[in-house]
Each structure stands twice: as structure tokens, then as C-alpha cells.
Design brief:
5-stranded antiparallel sheet, 9-stranded mixed sheet, 44% strand, 292 residues, mainly beta
């Protein structure tokens, strides 16, 4: 069986540029890449979209080398619509993320209760997706708790209330700055196992643990804790069901296999038609915490 693997860029994206309409050949088998979408729009914010493509994972590839500078798809036409107006996003270099290129909007801003449509046109292919922005959720409280493993490692717990009159899904993301190390995330990344359905929540205030994003290939390098001196922005977002299904599958692959480069033979459930990935609407509350 010929396998393909793809990752959303919150961990890593392995892909190659579509500008040359690349194909991979292994014997008589020709592999045609698929466009991968990592896109989001948030309440009060403009749309962001990162584009790459799937890659054939096979040691006998005869043509098509993967080069780091070729990873972003830089020449697509990316259009976002809210049903009343539409906007063509502008692609530009974006340092501090991987791959270092994204498409961003200006005029269309996210609004709770509205549906947003995405269309990507490139190399004779069209990819579409739609998402909704739910109602907001608030973080009521948070705690920084010292780890039992080490005096310099900490976990963060956040508390919030779920509206029991409706079905809800939640996503936790983080952005970390370490002044001592001179590092800072230039976007929010998915917290490890940070996707929650209200099926497991109670009627009163609920507390969940925020874990460091899983952005490593080697499992022995990963720790869910935060370090003393780090400043962590924790974002709790409400998302729709389609987004929940994608992120749940994504986290299950990481949790079970610990290497999403080579996941199981099944694909992640996606709201992208004609391609893969996720187009997600967020409505969130954010707290900034300095771990001391």
C-alpha cells in the first residue's frame, strides 16, 4: 500500500510547492498531491490561511525532491466570504511560523453566529470549506500548579462554565514567550489533548488542564508542563462540531502513535472539500500568565 501523510502546521507541515504542479512516481504508480488547508477566522479578527500539500511517503520516489524553501504554496487565489461580501486574501512572508508564508484578510471580520466560506484556487484545482463562529466562552479562573516531578515545571488549570442548554465543543490553544531563551510563538498552537466536548463536562464550573503543545517528532523530548519564567497566553475557544471532529482525530493520532508523520491508514475527518485540513471558526477568551 502506498501511504501519504499530512500535518497541520500547528505541529509541523511536510509538503512541497504546487507552483510546478509536481507529481511523484514510484514504479508505475503516480501520486498526485492534495492541497492541505490550515485556516482560521476568529471573532473580531480577519481570516488567516496557510497552504501546503500532501507528500507521498515512499523511499522509491523517482522524481520530486522536498525542499524547505518550496514548502509554502505562494501563488494561490484564496477567497473568504460571509455570504454578503467576499475578500481575496493577500499572501505574504510570515516569519516565526512554519511554513513561513500565510494569506491574511483585512475587511471581513469574524462575528458570532455567522458562517464563513473559504475557496482556494490553484494549479487548476479548487478547494472549498465552510465554518461557523459560535457564541463566546469565558475563562472564569486559572491556577498555576507546581509539578511533582520538578520544582521548575508547572501546569496550568483553567475554569469555565458550560451552557447546558445547548451542545458545545471547546478548543484550548497557547502562545508561549520565554524571554530568557529569547523565543516567542508568533501564532497560537493547539494545546496537547486540548479539545473537549461538553459530554464530559458537568453542570457547574469545570476545570481542565492546559498542556504544552506537542511540536516534536521524538516523544522523549516532550513534556506537557510549562517552565518557570515563561509567559503563556492561554486561549479557550468555542468551535463548531466539524472543527471538533478534526481536532479530536488529530489529537488521537498524536496520543496513540506519538508520531503524526506516520499515522494510521485512516484520514482525519475534515471540513475541506477537494483537499484536506481544517477551516475553523473560533470565539475565545484569553488569559496571559507568567509562570513564577
Amino acid at each position: 500500500m502506498k501511504h501519504s501523510a499530512y500535518l497541520i502546521s500547528s505541529v509541523l507541515l511536510i509538503s512541497t510547492c504546487l507552483s510546478c504542479d509536481i507529481r511523484w512516481r514510484s514504479g508505475d504508480y503516480v501520486y498526485n498531491p492534495e492541497i492541505v488547508v490550515d485556516g482560521w477566522i476568529e471573532e473580531g479578527e480577519a481570516a488567516n490561511v496557510i497552504l501546503t500539500q500532501t507528500v507521498m511517503v515512499n523511499p522509491d520516489i523517482e522524481q520530486g525532491e522536498i525542499k524547505l524553501q518550496d514548502i509554502p504554496i505562494k501563488w494561490a487565489k484564496v477567497t473568504v466570504s460571509d455570504g454578503e461580501q467576499e475578500e481575496v486574501l493577500v499572501g505574504r512572508k510570515s516569519d516565526g511560523i512554519f511554513p513561513p508564508y500565510r494569506y491574511t484578510g483585512v475587511s471581513i471580520r469574524g462575528e458570532a453566529g455567522k458562517k464563513y466560506f473559504l475557496k482556494v484556487e490553484y494549479s487548476g484545482r479548487t478547494v472549498t470549506a465552510e465554518t461557523t463562529i459560535p457564541e463566546p466562552v469565558r475563562i472564569d479562573d486559572f491556577k498555576v500548579v507546581k509539578s511533582e516531578e520538578c520544582d521548575t515545571l508547572y501546569r496550568i488549570d483553567i475554569s469555565f462554565r458550560d451552557d447546558r442548554t445547548e451542545k458545545n465543543w471547546y478548543k484550548v490553544l497557547t502562545s508561549i514567550r520565554d524571554e530568557k531563551a529569547g523565543t516567542e510563538d508568533m501564532r497560537y498552537y493547539s494545546a496537547f489533548m486540548g479539545t473537549v466536548s461538553d459530554e464530559i463536562l458537568g453542570p457547574e464550573e469545570n476545570t481542565i488542564t492546559v498542556s504544552r503543545p506537542f511540536r516534536h517528532i521524538r516523544t522523549e523530548d516532550y513534556s506537557p508542563y510549562f517552565h518557570k519564567g515563561e509567559t503563556v497566553k492561554v486561549k479557550l475557544a468555542q468551535i463548531d462540531e466539524a472543527s471538533f471532529l478534526f481536532w479530536s482525530d488529530y489529537e488521537n493520532e498524536i496520543s496513540n502513535g506519538k508520531n503524526i508523520l506516520f499515522p494510521s491508514t485512516s484520514n482525519l475527518r475534515s471540513n475541506v472539500t477537494g483537499g484536506r485540513g481544517i477551516w475553523c471558526g473560533y470565539n475565545s477568551d484569553t488569559v496571559q500568565i507568567t509562570v513564577e
